[in-house]
Write a structure and sequence with these properties.
Length: about 425
C-alpha cells in the first residue's frame, strides 16, 4: 500500500533492520540499564537519521568528560517491537525517540518520565515554534520534547503534469477541483499517469479534512471519534470516485507502493502526492524531475485544517537511573549548534528560527523548500490537536485496511464507514 504519511515510511526507511551503535562502551539493544555516568539513547529511522545521530552523540561525549552514551537504533517497526519488550522488562533506554502514534500509549502506562521540572531549567524550549513547544504534554504533564516541526503537504511534479498537457493546480484549489483536475490528467494520459496518488487509507490526512469540516477527529477525552460516520463514508466515496475516473492509480498499484522507491510519484504513475512536508527530501532523491510543494486542498469557505506541530519527540524513561543527565542530552539534541547543523532536516523542519537560520539552507533545495513551506503557513495553520489518543496506531491500521477493501471491491464506502466506526469504539474505549 502507499504509505507516504506513515512514520514507518518517513523514519523507517532502512531495510537493515535492527542495528546497535557502539559509540562508547555500551551493550547491544536490550542491554542492562545504564549505570551512573552512562546513558542509553535509542531512535528509529533510516540511514540518514542514524548517521547524523551517531555523529552528534560522539561529539556530545567528546565535550563532556566521563559521560558515555550508547546509541541504539532500528527501523520503525523493529524499534517498537524491541521497545515494547524492554518496557515490559523495565529496561528501557534512558532517552528514546517517541512517535506521536504511540506516545500517549507509553505515557499512559507510566513508561515515560514527567519532565516538567526540567523545562525552562535544564531543557530550553523558549525559542521553539508554538506548535512544537506545546507538543509532548498529556493531561498537563510533559512527557516529550519536540525535535522538529511537521505539517501536511502536497508534492507536485510540474514537468510530468505539463507533459500530459495539463496545468499545475492553483493554490486556492478545493477537494472538488482536485478531483476534476486529477481525472482530467488520468484521462488525457490514457490512464498512464493519474492526477494524484490514492490517499483514501491515510488517517493522518483525513484528520485535516475533518477539521476543514469543523470537526475534530477525536473527542476531548480521546475515547471516541468526533468526526461522524457520514464524513468517513464521504471520504472513502470521494477516493472511490477518483479511482473510477482514473484520477488515482488502480488499487493494485497503490497496494504495491510499499516504500518511497515504489511511490506513484517516484514511478511516474501519479503527478502529485501527499505526505509530511520533510518527506520531499526522500522523494526528490529518487527523482530527476524537480518537486514543488503546495498546501492540501480545502473546502469552499472551509475552516483551517492544516496545523504545525511535532509528531516525534525525545522522552526519558520512567525507569532511568540518570534522568538529570538524560535531560541534559535532550537539551543538547534540540539546542546545540553542532547538533542542529549535523541533524539538519533529517528529523524534520528545525523547531526554531535560530536553528533554521543556522542551517543557511539553499531555498531551492528540498530541505529549503520544506522549511519555507512551514514558515509560510503562518495564519493559515490552525491550532494543533491534542496528542493522538491511546489506540491510534491500531485505528490507523484499521483505516488503511478498510480503504484497501473498498479499493479492491471487497467493501463499499458505506459498509466500510460503518465497520470503522463500530470497531473504533472498541479500540478507543479499551
Amino acid at each position: 500500500m502507499s504509505d507516504v504519511f506513515s512514520r514507518r515510511r518517513f523514519l523507517g526507511l532502512s531495510a537493515m533492520g535492527l542495528s546497535t551503535v557502539a559509540l562508547s562502551a555500551c551493550g547491544s539493544w536490550g542491554g542492562k540499564s545504564s549505570g551512573s555516568g552512562s546513558l542509553r539513547a535509542a531512535w528509529y529511522g533510516g540511514d540518514a537519521v542514524h548517521t547524523a545521530l551517531e555523529k552528534v552523540l560522539a561529539h556530545y561525549q567528546s565535550t563532556r568528560s566521563g559521560q558515555k552514551v550508547g546509541g541504539e537504533h532500528a527501523a520503525f517497526a523493529d524499534y517498537w517491537s524491541k521497545l515494547s519488550t524492554e518496557t515490559a522488562a523495565r529496561n528501557s533506554p534512558d532517552v528514546m525517540r517517541m512517535s506521536m502514534t504511540y506516545f500517549t500509549d507509553y505515557a499512559g502506562r507510566g513508561a515515560l518520565l514527567d519532565m516538567t521540572k526540567y523545562i525552562g531549567k535544564t531543557i530550553d524550549i523558549s525559542t521553539m515554534e508554538e506548535g512544537v513547544a506545546g507538543s509532548g504534554v498529556v493531561d498537563g504533564k510533559r512527557y516529550g520534547v519536540g525535535q522538529s516541526s511537521i505539517a501536511n503537504a502536497v508534492f507536485v511534479n510540474r514537468e510530468l503534469i505539463e507533459s500530459v498537457g495539463a496545468k499545475v493546480p492553483t493554490a486556492d484549489w478545493t477537494w472538488d477541483s482536485l478531483a476534476s483536475w486529477a481525472k482530467a490528467v488520468g484521462q488525457s494520459s490514457n490512464g498512464k499517469v493519474a492526477g494524484t496518488s490514492d490517499q483514501s487509507g491515510h488517517l493522518e490526512l483525513f484528520e485535516p479534512y475533518a477539521r476543514q469540516h469543523g470537526k475534530s477527529l477525536f473527542t476531548t477525552d480521546g475515547k471516541a471519534l468526533a468526526a461522524g460516520q457520514d464524513l468517513v463514508e464521504q471520504w472513502w466515496a470521494y477516493w472511490q470516485d477518483l479511482r473510477a475516473g482514473k484520477g488515482t492509480p488502480a488499487a493494485s498499484v497503490t497496494a504495491a507502493a510499499t516504500g518511497f522507491e515504489t511511490d506513484p510519484i517516484v514511478t511516474g504513475k501519479a503527478a502529485i502526492d501527499f505526505g509530511w512536508v520533510q518527506q520531499i527530501q526522500f522523494l526528490q532523491g529518487l527523482m530527476k524531475q524537480e518537486l514543488e510543494i503546495m498546501t492540501i486542498p480545502n473546502l469552499p469557505n472551509g475552516k483551517p485544517g492544516l496545523y504545525v506541530d511535532s509528531q516525534d519527540m525525545w522522552s526519558i524513561a520512567a525507569t532511568s537511573t540518570n534522568p538529570d543527565a538524560a535531560a541534559e542530552l535532550i537539551n543538547y539534541l534540540v539546542n546545540d549548534d553542532f547538533a542542529i547543523k549535523t541533524i539538519g532536516v533529517v528529523l524534520g523542519v528545525p523547531p526554531s528560527k535560530h536553528a533554521v537560520d543556522l542551517l543557511s539552507l539553499e531555498p531551492k533545495s528540498p530541505a529549503g523548500k520544506a522549511v519555507a513551506y512551514v514558515q509560510g503557513l503562518g495564519d493559515k495553520a490552525a491550532t494543533p490537536p491534542p496528542p493522538w489518543p491511546k489506540g491510534y496506531s491500531q485505528l490507523s491500521t484499521l483505516f488503511t485496511k478498510i480503504s484497501q477493501d473498498i479499493g479492491f471491491g471487497r467493501s463499499t464506502p458505506s459498509k466500510g464507514a460503518a465497520s470503522f466506526y463500530s470497531q473504533s469504539k472498541q479500540i478507543l474505549g479499551a
